[in-house]
Amino acid sequence: MSKIVIGVSSSISIYKSCEVIRLFQEKGYEVQVVMTENASRFISPVLFKALTGKPALVDLFKEGISEHIQHVHLADEAVLFVVAPATANVIAKMASGISDDFLTTFYTAAASPVLIAPAMNERMYLCRSNQANMERLKAAGVRFVEAEQGYLACGKQGYGRLASVREIVSQGELLIQKTQSLKGRTILVTGGPTREYLDSVRFLTNRSSGKMGFELAEEAKRRGAKVVLISGPTHMIPHPEVQFIPVETADQMGEQVMKHFEQSDAVIMAAAVCDYKFSKKAAGKIKKKNLPLEIQLSRTEDILEKIGTMKKDKICVGFAAEVEDIEKNAKNKLTRKNLDLIVANDISGKETGFESEFNDVFIIHRSGKILPTGKKSKLEISKDIMDEVEVLIERKN
Ligand code: CTP
Asked: Which DSSP letter does residue 193 get?
């Protein structure tokens, strides 16, 4: 039976968490409750024990519950973490990574999707710091069931009411389904820049941080795919369950893409592959006095264009970094390289694109359908791209 962890914090709407538990149980899930100390003043953990058959976890240091490091062990087992109701305080702690009780520590250890259903007074809900904290969590991939408008415990009408139990449970189920949506598929992602060496120390490269490719790889992994990530040098840390292949040059990247292409259902070329390499590479370090002032370059092979000619039923996704006529240029690139999807971004924007946490892209289909994402974190953009890739894979099979 799949296990859902339900985090309960101290809002007046806490009594509705019992219905959330019941509904998940009716749908066949095993539920483990974790609650804050303050929540245990509203409702005794004994009630949750009676509902779930397991002690509600409140204290991180309580002895004798389990021989495992419990928050980590639970994080390995859970298919979903739902915080309902979530107070402004819990949201703030989660947004800044404070882990001072079981619930917040569990969040930092969670490996599953996370869903938050806030509930509080309207002024607290709309308070700028609460809104900023929610935005921060959204940018980190946490999903929200937005609070509703209606009668509040303070006696007024307004925003801040806990979403309906049905809405919370159905959004939770959708998130669980998403973790399986690419099961059995293999997704090949490239990321980062390439380095083209003149000698053993000097090279040509570009400003790519690798962030987009790494986020895409992680998102595909979260959806249950087998993921191969081929990347040029970056400071990013790959997801431990992603097959990571570090490369340096465009030639090495091309070689690895060819090696893994056949087994893949989709290839996403997010790498900023250098278009040029030095025609000759010296074995050691060229002495300054011997450095030529004019250096011969040659074109690297266009990996994406090559796989576009041999793709058959595979989905090929490219990126287009543009400064003008974004849509037109990207569409031309899509046709020229025989792609299914192209992600076009305007690299003239200062706050998005290269070396930024954010991006603002157009996802363009071969059919001409265009989806503008607006400015979002690269993690959120990777979800948008993967949603489209998923549909295209389904359609081909
Ligand atoms: N690409 C590739 N192999 C190369 C160069 C680029 O596979 N040698 C891929 C990139 O990974 C990206 C897409 O092709 O998915 C970018 O296409 P490209 O034609 O290089 O576009 P821009 O870099 O935007 O260049 P330009 O607009 O100058 O043509």
From this structure: B
